[in-house]
Amino acid sequence: MDISMFSQIDTFHWILDMNVFVGEAYEQVREMCIFLLNNLTLPSDKALAVYVQSPGSPFVYCGAVTISRPSAVLSLPWPEPGGALQLTAPGAAPLSAKIGVSVQDLATLPSLDIVAEQRIERMAMRVGENLFNFMQSFCGVDGSKLVVPMDILDRWFKKFQERAKRDPEYLKGFAL
What we know:
This protein is α+β, with helices and mostly antiparallel strands. It has 4 helices and 9 strands. It folds into 2 domains: 3-110; 116-175, no CATH class.
């Protein structure tokens, strides 16, 4: 889809109402590919920033594209719906999830490398959690120490690799 599917709020801001496309299933939209077309130019000090907002929550920054980095696949970390859900007036349109796009000064945005680092950190934490849960299912207790079989890391890694080969979506679940 192109920017024409978004509602233009002002000269530099656009909103995509997720109710129009997926309704309450917005959390299933986990990634977004964004790119600048050849006829769209931005000044070198500007960026096209992407944000997500769950119903009743504040917007959360996802990433940006620039002239020097004209495309990106961005994770959409939908925040928990906020308390404003209960504050809608009777008869008013229900709050919906949104994707926001805005032209912003590049200097005001978090570094694009920081966003990538945060994604890698989330993935590492989820892989570590998977390992911990696997080890915990085989451990015993010796006083104040957890005792696991010596080959536990090999067993976990083989299981992890086999699952990744069987199910291509498995590893993607760790990155979200």
